[in-house]
Design a protein that fits this description.
Distance between the termini: 112 Å
CATH topology of one domain: SH3 type barrels
Oligomer: single chain
Mean pLDDT: 81
Number of strands: 7
Order of helices and strands: HHHEEEEEEE
Strand content: 25-35%
Largest sheet: 4 strands, antiparallel
Strand order of the largest sheet: 4-5-6-7
Shape: elongated
CATH architecture of one domain: Roll
Length: 175
């Protein structure tokens, strides 16, 4: 073991001498590179944007109707005797289960003074209808039949809790 210690004592100064000598060299080139990097990049800050001055606005529609209020006075509507409403007690007819735009007039049938309309439903079944019958899903009562068209009046919601009447028709060959 003494032999190794002597060997280490001799080799240590020999090996560490050049290593320590290499670390003591001048670092001037490093400082020069740092100075060059600092001077090469000159940062810039964008100028503050210019804002337009505030332009005031005068609201001139104060006399107009408020868009957030009901256009019709609901209290006045409630005071009226609202006789127009769907009859919930009336038995439904077969053609009332189909939307009006799926029904098609395919012809007319005349028996004496009676004129019947022929309506084909989406299931390709032809039904015979007369004035007073109902069809469509909006309480559509048939008011007239001609050779080319069936006229009806539907009862639809008006959006304010009541109902309004709307005229509709089905023309022959309407698909």
């Amino acid at each position: 073991m003494k032999k190794y210690l002597k060997l280490n004592a001799i080799l240590l100064p020999i090996i560490s001498g050049p290593v320590l000598t290499g670390c003591s060299q001048s670092v001037d080139d490093l400082y020069a590179y740092i100075d060059q990097a600092k001077s090469a990049h000159i940062g810039s800050v964008k100028p503050i944007p210019q804002f337009k001055p505030y332009e005031s606005f005068t609201y001139s529609a104060t006399e107009l109707r408020d868009p957030f209020e009901a256009a019709v006075d609901i209290e006045e509507e409630e005071d009226k005797d609202d006789l127009l409403s769907p009859d919930k007690t009336r038995p439904r007819q077969p053609l009332e289960s189909f939307p009006l735009d799926t029904l098609r007039m395919v012809g007319v049938l005349e028996q004496g003074s009676n004129l019947w309309g022929l309506i084909e439903d989406p299931k390709q079944v032809v039904h015979r209808v007369k004035v007073g019958n109902y069809l469509g899903q909006n309480e559509g009562a048939i008011t007239g039949i001609t050779e080319g068209e069936i006229y009806l009046v539907e009862i639809i919601p008006d959006g304010l809790g009541g109902y309004i009447e709307r005229d509709a028709s089905i023309a022959i060959g309407n698909e």
